[in-house]
């Protein structure tokens, strides 16, 4: 039953308007074209994520009736409320809050990783702060560069707590907390442990929302530059599905622009020797995974099976549910499959000494940096993937090399490891892996051709989605979850024996990899993530082949190299193991 | 585990058993019980070292950061060990107005330590605390559970002297 | 006890118990206990037993007798004798001289400046002018004895509410009485209950705020220790009024020793059926648990208190929503202060009009203050609202102990302000105080004499608030730190005249911009001292403040004592001649001041 809510009449800067109950002053002001600065506030409304701690106090506006300042981001409009957003009192208070934040901030903008992409900096500019009246003691914490994924510079933290909202409430990992109180408060790990000693999944969602450079990706571009400039190294690069629909944003294109060809061209201009496609690995993953699933279903194996291509999610289950490690599929992620093949199959084919090959990937993801460094992922002492850079880092390299991305001529991938289908394209969005797997599993299990390849029922941005897909005699019960908090719910159900699924896809990031921690900052705009998602489905729809088992190059790979899905060699190269880890 | 400080095996098993029993008998929500459990743990162990905090986190199924965030918020919880005698000088207003700051300074000078740090001989930790509700006796100093009222700078020497031997006065 | 009749019979039976010839009311409040009153009580009881006088003499351990600065206290009734500063060594005299030989021990009486003694507490100005509602049972009964409480009409009000009134009627009475929250905000209690009652919810909670964070205040603690059943009864009435089944008392960890009598009271109340299921045979069920704080002033703020009860860091939440709508476990919750609560049974028994007959137009009833600082009579003072500072300080408080000039009074603790002599005729009520830039607060009242440095006082409070700030919001987290830094700069003579403007502007913005009451009120001590004692700030800002010790040549007798103690040897002079301080070298340690036998050394 939906209650018919009464509309509420209020006025903003003298403009009268009616809004629904529950509307905040900020939302009401937007309706009449009045902008109020915000900093701590974060609202990804459609996926139910909001940081409303109302603590930065840069959004204060005056409630004219009570002569009181209220935070526009959190205060709800009530009947008859009259708000003045730019009264002297409000403006002075907002400026004071910002000045105080800056008085406790290293003003290192020129050399800061967030320079020109920083909400604090932008605000200081927009609010025309030219002097800090109250200088004083500043925080002094050591820089934490211990982890593969995330750099942490607490001195740049403004205690907005967006990261905590993401890590605690969305991801339920609980790595960060304010410690101490008063001026000494710092958002940190338990006991100030180094990041790499915590149970951090490196999903990077904290980084995605951090308004400053307090949390950022580890910068791996110098290593890549060094490899590129090394005379004897042969540098191969792969790019992930979600990168191609996001990178262009960094160069002024609208969200959802598909720029695969330009990216390949840019990579060539950066002098990568070969550009291959992670999507190839995605198709391969689908086949291995579908094979594993059918095997588990037919031989009474552990069900449900959970997809394992998101390393943050793998890290999550290892730390939080060590008793369930037989649940995830043993398949490596597409990145690692391609990485393995670069140093084996590719090396063989191109007759290059694998020792001379440097394998680089461009990922939407910080967890991929940590994944590449996992103990499991090497052969003969060589890492499958040597360096991982994010979408943002690639953009910075392109800018650094002064390449005009806009005018680049599109180029195709190099020949090996680059064929892909529509099924692989949608790996970048929540539900995509499962949809891809279902297309293949259907034909594997029924032996019939799947006519309607679009499983629109399981698409969308709902946190948990379930469906039953008829597969001939039996049906496949599937579940999809993105964000680790939703994953936790599914895992608890599995642990308690209450789950009724066969196959579950889990992606750590909101929306899947399109919302990954290494993507261009969405600055709280959900429409950016949606646009990227639509682009992936568009890409899928336009490709001639849309089922992974139709991928010619994959078929060939099995023929000449891997024998068959699930073979001994495939297991050796494409599968992995998991180990229990202590939860901090 | 890479980090030694988080090694739970160095904690006294007998005390942990007592803590376990206490936790087992608690009713209700783990999170709501956290502060009570921490009080209990500190009463048993004297302070709340990191590994003990982590132990509590595991026992209550909370994250380590959550527990550490709570411990460091409340001034009643000590992460560091305290001396045999905890000398608390009330710095509430009633005591301050009557010269508690000078008493505190004198105590620190005599013991030769800094605020909140255990003295080298392990005998004393000196803290400033907020009003303990005995303002009628301002300035007030407590040494462990014993309360001393109307303490003047000139009394400090004798007062601390009584504890210096290590056998409580 | 299932009906009123049963209750009244029980009460009357308890009242009819034979009264001993003599009762010694021995203070068992915190201050007196700290001065070994427990030992004194034990010794007295031992003697009474040894002489087989148990039937004649009753040695009662009661709650705070209010004149805490003179403790340990003993009242002897019906003789109307007040003994103060009783030591363990005095027990013999009290027993032999007073109990056995019926002679007053004069040296243990209160001494007036003229050397005369006051023996009667009824005659003592400190007690005479007070009027007790909240403290009505404090010092009268043994808090461990539920029978004593019942005999004084304890739980009668609860019976009346449950058996004869609807929740709406109870709320209406409280509304009519004009009772306002004693925890600082002064919000009308009846209205708060009505709001909480109006929200539909299966679960609701009653919370007693016993955090008492104001440093220098000890009213709530004294009530809990001296009359815990009044609190239990009041909370139960509140629960009935708003429809709660569970209550909590959030008490600060520093008050660990108050918890034991409180627990005992809860147990006894349960035993007697005043708590638990089907109270007074009705369908109404209610119980109370204790939640312990862990040392954070901000946890006195109600939303922080609720966060702390839920096991979190005690960080305040934005309001609205108010706890009455969404509080503990997101359920409607009424949070009230200890003193607020204990007024309730008295209001129910005597009627709203009776209560409203005390106090001023908008502030009804009485208020308990914890009087401390540079004042002769340190202790608890309960007076009708509207009593002036003059009355409290000079009549009740007895003025300065050494007759020095009183410069101001800090009221409302770290959230309040300093009031100068010029305003001592202000009637103390919520609105008059706000009008002069102070606030009622919880009732801490610290008297400061002419030697007090007001900039130091402001710095003291800022040091407190910046340490106690939860650190959640910017203006308070960083702003109070900056205020403190400016004050530190000033008092160490590093300040600039422009700092005064900065202080004021920053203070006003912190007030306006902070998220909770702590930050919103943290600048009050600065602003009020700047308003009334600006010259003291200027002396620092313009660096004209005298900081070194000097010697008054008219007084110095040349005894050389000061020169001998000076750690930096900066006092020049020869025997029997006037000494002089080399001010440039003086480190202001004050040693000379303490050493001089004729008070010739002048403090800065
Ligand atoms: C910083 C701060 C500290 C407070 N401390 C206390 C306290 O120690 N005791 C108390 O009863 N109320 C305290 N309050 C007021 C409470 O928030 C709340 O208003 C009160 O408990 C409500 O009870 P009342 O209506 O009976 O006064 C404090 C408020 C603030 C902002
Ligand atoms: S975080 Fe932002 S404001 Fe801070 S130094 Fe970096 S760019 Fe500048
Ligand atoms: S990367 Fe993910 S798990 Fe790690 S701290 Fe950030 S949000 Fe939490
Ligand atoms: S690390 Fe970033 S997101 Fe987290 S509180 Fe600090 S500034 Fe905010
Ligand atoms: S969802 Fe994608 S981007 Fe996010 S952590 Fe997993 S693999 Fe990385
Ligand atoms: S005003 Fe101070 S105590 Fe209150 S929320 Fe802000 S930082 Fe915390
Ligand atoms: S105050 Fe100390 S340093 Fe200054 S003159 Fe007196 S004794 Fe010497
Ligand atoms: S102690 Fe006093 S009287 Fe004696 S020399 Fe010093 S100032 Fe003069
Ligand atoms: S944006 Fe509203 S308080 Fe931070
Ligand atoms: S101020 Fe020291 S005991 Fe209250
Ligand atoms: S404590 Fe004994 S008189 Fe107050």
List keywords for this structure.
heterotrimer, A: 584 residues, alpha/beta, Ubiquitin-like (UB roll), Alpha-Beta Plaits, Rossmann fold, 3 domains, five-stranded mixed β-sheet, 18 helices, globular, B: 169 residues, alpha+beta, Glutaredoxin, 2 domains, four-stranded mixed β-sheet, 7 helices, 46% helix, 11% strand, elongated, binds flavin mononucleotide, binds iron/sulfur cluster, binds FE2/S2 (inorganic) cluster
Give a concise summary.
With 169 residues, chain B is of the alpha+beta class. In chain B, 46% of the residues lie in helices and 11% in strands.
Outline the secondary-structure elements.
The complex is a heterotrimer of chains A (584), B (169) and C (604).
Chain A: E1 7-12, E2 15-20, H1 25-31, E3 42-44, E4 49-51, E5 60-63, E6 68-71, E7 82-84, H2 88-103, H3 119-126, E8 150-152, H4 162-170, E9 176-179, E10 186-189, H5 205-209, E11 215-217, H6 221-228, E12 234-239, H7 260-269, E13 274-277, H8 278-298, E14 305-306, H9 311-320, H10 334-350, E15 357-363, H11 367-372, E16 378-379, E17 382-383, E18 387-390, H12 391-400, H13 422-425, H14 432-446, E19 464-471, E20 474-482, H15 484-495, E21 503-507, H16 526-542, H17 552-562, H18 568-574
Parallel strand pairs in A: 1-7, 12-13, 12-15, 14-21, 15-18, 20-21
Antiparallel strand pairs in A: 1-2, 3-4, 5-6, 5-7, 8-11, 9-10, 16-17, 19-20
Helix pairs in contact in A: 8-10, 8-14
Chain B: H1 13-24, H2 30-45, H3 50-60, H4 64-73, E1 85-90, H5 93-97, H6 100-111, E2 124-129, E3 141-143, E4 146-148, H7 153-164
Parallel strand pairs in B: 1-2
Antiparallel strand pairs in B: 1-3, 3-4
Helix pairs in contact in B: 1-2, 2-3, 3-4, 6-7
Chain C: H1 4-15, E1 22-27, H2 30-34, H3 37-50, E2 57-62, E3 74-77, E4 81-83, H4 91-100, E5 110-111, E6 117-118, H5 125-128, H6 146-151, H7 156-164, H8 167-177, H9 189-198, E7 205-210, H10 219-226, H11 228-242, E8 246-251, H12 256-271, E9 287-292, H13 302-309, E10 333-337, H14 338-350, H15 352-356, E11 366-373, E12 379-384, H16 389-396, E13 406-411, E14 417-420, H17 430-435, E15 444-449, H18 454-468, H19 474-491, H20 498-513, H21 517-521, H22 524-532, H23 534-541, E16 550-551, H24 561-565, E17 571-572, E18 580-581, H25 591-595, E19 601-602
Parallel strand pairs in C: 1-2, 7-8, 7-10, 8-9, 11-15
Antiparallel strand pairs in C: 1-3, 3-4, 5-6, 11-12, 13-14, 13-15, 16-19, 17-18
Helix pairs in contact in C: 7-11, 7-14, 8-9, 8-11, 11-14, 18-19, 18-22, 19-20, 20-22, 22-23
The complex binds flavin mononucleotide (FMN), iron/sulfur cluster (SF4) (7 copies) and FE2/S2 (inorganic) cluster (FES) (3 copies).
């Amino acid at each position: 039953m939906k209650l018919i809510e009464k509309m509420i009449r209020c006025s903003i800067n003298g403009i009268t308007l009616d809004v629904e109950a529950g509307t905040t002053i900020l939302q009401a002001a937007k309706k009449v074209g009045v902008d109020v600065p915000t900093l701590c506030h974060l609202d990804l409304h459609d996926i139910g994520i909001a940081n409303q701690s109302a603590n930065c106090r840069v959004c204060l506006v005056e409630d004219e009736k009570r002569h009181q300042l209220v935070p526009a981001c959190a205060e709800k409009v009530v009947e008859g409320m009259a708000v003045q957003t730019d009264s002297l009192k409000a403006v002075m208070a907002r400026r004071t809050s910002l000045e105080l934040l800056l008085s406790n901030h290293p003003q290192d903008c020129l050399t800061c990783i967030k320079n020109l992409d920083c909400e604090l900096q932008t605000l200081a500019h927009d609010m025309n702060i030219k002097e800090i009246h109250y200088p004083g003691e500043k925080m002094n914490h050591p820089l934490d560069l211990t982890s593969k994924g995330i750099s942490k510079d607490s001195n740049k933290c403004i205690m907005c707590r967006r990261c905590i909202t993401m890590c605690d409430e969305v991801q339920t990992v609980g790595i960060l907390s304010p410690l101490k109180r008063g001026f000494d408060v710092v958002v940190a790990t338990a006991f100030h442990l180094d990041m790499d000693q915590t149970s951090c999944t490196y999903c990077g969602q904290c980084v995605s929302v951090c308004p400053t450079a307090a949390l950022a990706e580890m910068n791996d571009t110098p290593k890549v530059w060094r490899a590129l400039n090394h005379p004897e190294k042969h540098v191969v690069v792969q790019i992930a599905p979600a990168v191609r629909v996001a990178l262009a944003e960094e160069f002024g294109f609208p969200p959802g622009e598909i720029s695969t060809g330009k990216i390949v061209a840019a990579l060539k201009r950066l002098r990568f020797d070969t550009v291959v496609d992670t999507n190839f690995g995605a198709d391969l993953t689908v086949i291995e995974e579908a094979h594993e699933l059918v095997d588990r279903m037919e031989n009474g194996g552990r069900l449900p099976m959970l997809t394992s291509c998101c390393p943050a999610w793998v890290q999550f289950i290892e730390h939080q549910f060590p008793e369930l490690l037989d649940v995830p599929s043993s398949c490596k992620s597409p990145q690692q499959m391609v990485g393995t093949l670069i140093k084996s199959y590719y090396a063989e084919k191109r007759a290059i000494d694998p020792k001379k090959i440097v394998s680089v990937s461009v990922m939407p993801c910080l967890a991929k940096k940590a994944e590449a460094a996992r103990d499991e992922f090497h052969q003969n002492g060589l890492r499958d993937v040597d360096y991982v850079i994010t979408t943002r880092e690639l953009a910075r390299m392109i800018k650094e090399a002064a390449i005009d991305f806009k005018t680049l001529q599109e180029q195709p991938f190099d020949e090996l490891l680059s064929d892909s289908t529509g099924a692989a394209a949608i790996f970048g969005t929540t539900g995509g892996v499962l949809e891809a797997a279902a297309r293949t599993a259907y034909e594997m299990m029924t032996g019939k051709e799947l006519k309607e390849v679009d499983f629109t029922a399981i698409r969308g941005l709902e946190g948990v989605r379930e469906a039953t897909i008829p597969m001939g005699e039996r049906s496949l019960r599937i579940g999809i979850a993105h964000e680790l908090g939703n994953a936790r719910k599914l895992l608890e159900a599995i642990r308690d024996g209450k789950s009724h699924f066969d196959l579950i896809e889990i992606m750590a990031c909101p929306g899947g990899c399109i919302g990954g921690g290494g993507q261009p900052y969405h600055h709280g705009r959900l429409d950016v993530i949606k646009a990227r998602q639509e682009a992936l489905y568009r890409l899928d729809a336009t490709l001639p082949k849309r089922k992974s088992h139709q991928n010619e190059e994959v078929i060939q790979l099995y023929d000449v190299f891997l024998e068959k899905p699930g073979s001994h060699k495939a297991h050796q190269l494409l599968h992995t193991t998991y180990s229990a880890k202590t939860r901090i | 585990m890479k980090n030694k400080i988080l090694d739970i095996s160095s904690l006294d098993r007998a005390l942990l058993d007592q803590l376990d029993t206490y936790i087992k008998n608690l009713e209700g929500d783990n999170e709501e019980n956290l502060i009570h459990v921490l009080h209990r743990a500190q009463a048993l162990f004297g302070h709340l070292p990191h590994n003990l905090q982590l132990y509590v986190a595991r026992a209550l199924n909370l994250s380590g950061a959550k527990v550490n965030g709570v411990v460091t918020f409340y001034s009643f919880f000590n992460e560091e060990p305290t001396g045999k005698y905890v000398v608390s000088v009330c710095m509430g207003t009633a005591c301050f107005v009557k010269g508690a700051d000078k008493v505190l300074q004198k105590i620190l000078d005599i013991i030769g330590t800094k605020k909140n740090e255990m003295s080298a001989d392990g005998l004393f930790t000196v803290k400033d605390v907020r009003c303990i509700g005995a303002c009628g006796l301002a300035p007030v100093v407590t040494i462990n559970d014993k309360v001393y009222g109307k303490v003047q700078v000139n009394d400090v020497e004798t007062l601390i002297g009584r504890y210096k031997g290590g056998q409580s006065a | 006890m299932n009906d009123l009749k049963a209750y009244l019979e029980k009460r009357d039976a308890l009242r009819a118990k034979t009264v001993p010839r003599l009762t010694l009311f021995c203070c068992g409040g915190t201050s007196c206990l700290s001065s070994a009153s427990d030992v004194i009580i034990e010794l007295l009881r031992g003697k009474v037993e040894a002489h087989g006088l148990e039937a004649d003499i009753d040695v009662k351990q009661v709650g705070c007798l209010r004149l805490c600065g003179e403790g340990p206290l003993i009242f002897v009734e019906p003789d109307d004798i007040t003994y103060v500063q009783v030591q363990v060594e005095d027990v013999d005299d009290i027993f032999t001289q007073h109990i056995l030989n019926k002679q007053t021990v004069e040296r243990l009486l209160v001494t007036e400046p003229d050397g005369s003694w006051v023996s009667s507490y009824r005659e003592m100005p400190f007690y005479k002018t007070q009027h007790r509602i909240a403290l009505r049972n404090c010092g009268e009964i043994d808090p461990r004895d539920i029978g004593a409480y019942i005999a004084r009409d304890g739980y009668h009000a609860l019976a009346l509410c449950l058996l004869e009134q609807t929740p709406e009627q109870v709320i209406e009475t409280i509304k009519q009485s004009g009772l306002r929250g004693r925890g600082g905000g002064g919000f009308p209690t009846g209205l708060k209950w009505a709001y909480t009652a109006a929200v539909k919810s299966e679960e609701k909670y009653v919370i007693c705020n016993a955090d008492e964070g104001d440093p220098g205040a000890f009213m709530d603690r004294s009530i809990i220790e001296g009359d815990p059943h009044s609190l239990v009864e009041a909370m139960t009435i509140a629960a009935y009024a708003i429809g709660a089944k569970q209550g909590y008392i959030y008490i600060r960890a520093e008050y660990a020793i108050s918890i034991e009598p409180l627990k005992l009271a809860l147990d006894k109340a349960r035993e007697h059926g005043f708590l638990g299921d089907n109270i007074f045979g009705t369908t109404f069920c209610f119980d109370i648990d204790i939640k312990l704080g862990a040392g954070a002033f901000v946890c006195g703020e109600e939303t922080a208190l609720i966060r702390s009860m839920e096991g979190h860091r005690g960080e305040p939440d934005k309001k609205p929503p108010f706890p009455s709508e969404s509080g503990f476990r997101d359920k409607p919750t009424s949070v009230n202060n200890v003193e607020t609560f204990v007024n309730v049974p008295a209001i129910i028994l005597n009627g709203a009009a009776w209560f409203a007959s005390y106090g001023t137009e908008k502030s009804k009833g009485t208020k308990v203050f914890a009087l401390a600082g540079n004042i002769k009579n340190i202790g608890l003072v309960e007076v009708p609202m509207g009593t002036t500072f003059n009355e409290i300080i000079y009549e009740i408080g007895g003025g300065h102990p050494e007759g020095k000039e009183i410069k101001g009074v800090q009221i409302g603790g770290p959230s309040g302000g300093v009031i100068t002599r010029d305003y001592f005729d202000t009637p103390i009520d919520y609105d008059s105080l706000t009008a002069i830039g102070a606030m009622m607060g919880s009732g801490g009242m610290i008297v400061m004499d002419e030697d007090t440095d007001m900039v130091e006082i402001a710095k003291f409070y800022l040091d407190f608030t910046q340490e106690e700030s939860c650190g959640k919001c910017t203006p308070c987290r960083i702003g109070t730190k900056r205020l403190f830094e400016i004050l530190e700069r000033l008092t160490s003579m590093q300040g600039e005249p422009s700092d005064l403007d900065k202080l004021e502007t920053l203070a006003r913005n912190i007030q306006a911009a902070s998220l909770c009451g702590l930050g919103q009120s943290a600048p009050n001590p600065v602003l009020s001292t700047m308003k009334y004692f600006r010259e003291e700030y200027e002396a620092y800002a313009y660096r004209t403040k005298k900081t070194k010790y000097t010697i008054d040549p008219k007084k110095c007798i040349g005894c050389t004592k000061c020169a001998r103690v000076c750690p930096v040897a900066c006092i020049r002079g020869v025997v029997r001649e006037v000494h002089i301080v080399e001010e440039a070298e003086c480190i202001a340690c004050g040693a000379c001041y303490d050493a001089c036998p004729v008070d010739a050394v002048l403090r800065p």
